[in-house]
Design goal:
Blueprint (H helix, E strand, L loop, with lengths): L1 H24 L5 H59 L6 H38 L5 H62 L6 H28 L4 E2 L9 H10 L15 E2 L3 H38 L3 H14 L4 H8 L6 E3 H10 L6 H11 L6 E3 H8 L8 H16 L10 E5 L2 E4 L5 E7 L2 E6 L2 E4 H8 L10 H7 L34 H4 E3 L5 E3 L5 H7 L11 H7 L3
Antiparallel strand pairs: 1-2, 3-4, 5-6, 6-7, 7-8, 8-9, 10-11
Length: 577
């Protein structure tokens, strides 16, 4: 603006010069004064023009310095900002390879930061030069920029030092983790060797020795549990496996519902299964630890199974099938079930027979207290034909020997023995006659009628009319020496006369053993109707016989041997009047 005004004045100066020259040509008195004034004006004009040109040059030089200073400061600040972003907000990787690459990048950043120190010196020198010749209003701004650049450089340098320290700490931690992992690998290797040596030892034959081995292995498992936190700490940097969630199909859901009723073995979680290590050393650590854990679990299960087998063998040494059978029958009764129901629940294909394995698995899966050794022995007893299968008749006959359909001959012998035993208690002078006509068919007394005899619920029963009555009750009503309350003189003359002192008994044809299982003292009497209670006596009288147990009758009856002589008076005294 000043130069424009100065340019406008240049025309006036030229016009003034021409006027003064024209006036000096005419000789006037003021010409000399005008010439002096004009020379002074030209000198001052030239001085002003030179000063304007000089000021223009100085302003242009100052502008160049200012632009250079501004460019240095802004480029310096931009590089510091980028370096600060990397140093302050950069994430230090945890993996060793990435950390080494990051350390190399940090060294390059430090080298670039050192090169920025030269630019900072240039900025400071240029600022001092500008401060030496600048306008007073610019001093504060220049000093502020010089201070800001110095402060920013110091901050970035501090961040670089801190990041270098963090990298150093991370490298030291990685080195320590390497040493820790190596130490854990050495411990796992020694533990695996000790397990292998223990596995090579002979199996113990007593429960005490095996229990001692179990306790030693329990101590080993406790040591492994104590080492587990160290293993987890060493593998904390490992990534977790991504498990996709798949929706099951309807078919799989139905299969899952069907299998839900089956008892599946408990699933033991594998340690560190969710980890996905990437470092070779950590991969080795995880695999070795899982292998050691699997070996320890297998050994523990083997020792426990061996201990259980030893205990089963000790219990099996005193195994008694009759005791087992009674316990199993009681257990079935407690469940309010029948033997047929149990057999049907085992026989799923309903073919009338079950395999030994099906029977053993069913009983072991139930809550009945037994073991595999006992069940093997029981299955051998149930399998009558040794063909590997158990049919319903073999199942029932093993649980209830008295219901065995293949033991009819033995039942006939037992019936004969029991009939002989009870008839032998007759005290009449003339022994009560009993004759066996065929299997399970007898003729009692003087009657020519054949009566069927069978065993029903451990009680010997005689067929009378359309029903059954117990043998002891039948003898009470038909054997004269057991009759109570009769006063018929014909009975005394017929059965108590001295002439009838000859005895004739029933001989046992096939067996001499007693029938304690079918003793009438422990058997309940069968129900009888009023018609069955009304029986004719030998004298033709009708009387009502109350039901009584054989135990009550046995307490009142008196037995004599076959060789004793019984007088009529003695027999008359025994019979009530």
């Amino acid at each position: 603006t000043f130069q424009k005004e100065l340019g406008k004045r240049a025309g006036c100066i030229r016009t003034l010069k021409r006027s003064v020259r024209d006036l000096t040509r005419s000789s006037t008195a003021d010409a000399h004064w005008l010439q002096e004034q004009m020379e002074e004006l030209e000198g001052r004009w030239d001085a002003v023009c030179r000063l304007s040109v000089s000021k223009q040059d100085r302003l242009e030089a100052a502008l160049q310095q200012a632009e250079k200073f501004d460019g240095l400061v802004h480029s310096f600040m931009e590089r510091l900002t980028e370096a600060e972003r990397i140093l302050k907000y950069g994430v230090i990787p945890e993996e060793e390879d990435s950390l080494l690459i990051f350390q190399k990048q940090h060294k390059e950043s430090l080298h670039a930061l050192h090169s920025q120190a030269v630019e900072l010196v240039n900025i400071q020198n240029l600022g001092e030069v500008i401060l030496a010749s600048c306008h007073p209003d610019s001093i504060i701004t220049l000093k502020s920029w010089i201070s800001v650049t110095k402060t920013r450089y110091d901050e970035v340098q501090t961040w670089a030092k801190q990041q270098g320290q963090r990298i150093h700490v991370s490298l030291a931690a990685l080195e320590a983790e390497k040493e820790e992992v190596q130490r854990l690998l050495d411990w796992i290797s020694s533990a695996e060797e000790s397990l292998v040596l223990r596995e090579e030892e002979p199996v113990s034959e007593t429960t005490e020795q095996n229990q001692e081995l179990i306790e030693q292995h329990t101590v080993f498992m406790e040591e492994m549990k104590k080492k587990l936190p160290e293993i987890e700490h060493a593998t904390k940097s490992c990534k977790h496996k991504s498990i996709p969630k798949h929706q099951g199909s309807p078919i799989r859901r139905q299969l899952a519902k069907r299998r839900s009723t089956m008892k599946l073995p408990p699933v033991i979680p594998v340690p560190l299964e969710h980890l996905d290590p990437q470092i070779p050393q950590l991969i080795q650590l995880v695999s070795q630890w899982q292998k050691l854990w699997h070996m320890a679990v297998v050994r523990r299960n083997r020792l426990e199974q061996h201990q259980l087998m030893l205990r089963e063998m000790e219990e099996f040494a005193n195994f008694d099938f009759n005791i087992w059978r009674k316990r199993y029958i009681q257990w079935i009764s407690h469940l309010k079930s029948r033997i047929l129901d149990v057999f049907r629940s085992i026989d799923r294909d309903q073919d009338g027979r079950i395999s030994r394995k099906e029977f053993i698995d069913y009983v072991l899966a139930s809550k009945f207290p037994t073991n595999s050794l006992e069940m093997t022995a029981v299955a051998n007893i149930f399998d009558l034909n040794n063909d590997g299968f158990i049919d319903y008749y073999g199942f029932v006959s093993a649980l209830h020997p008295s219901r065995d359909p293949y033991r009819k001959a033995l039942d006939a012998d037992q019936i004969n023995e029991e009939v002989s035993r009870q008839v032998s208690q007759c005290n009449c002078p003339k022994r009560f006659q009993v004759e066996q006509i065929s299997a399970n068919r007898y003729r009692f007394g003087d009657s020519q009628q054949l009566r069927m005899v069978r065993i029903l619920r451990s009680t010997l029963m005689v067929r009378v009319g359309g029903g059954w009555t117990a043998l002891d009750e039948f003898l009470v009503k038909n054997d004269p020496c057991r009759v109570k309350g009769r006063t018929n003189l014909k009975i005394k003359e017929k059965y108590l006369s001295p002439t009838g002192s000859t005895t004739k008994g029933l001989t046992v044809s096939r067996s001499n053993s007693s029938l304690s299982l079918y003793s009438s003292a422990s058997a309940p009497t069968s129900p009888m109707t009023r018609k069955a209670l009304l029986r004719r006596s030998f004298s033709g009288d009708r009387c009502i016989r109350p039901r009584s147990s054989i135990a009550a009758l046995g307490a009142e009856l008196q037995f004599v041997t076959a060789g004793e002589d019984n007088s009529p008076s003695d027999e008359a005294e025994r019979l009530p009047t």
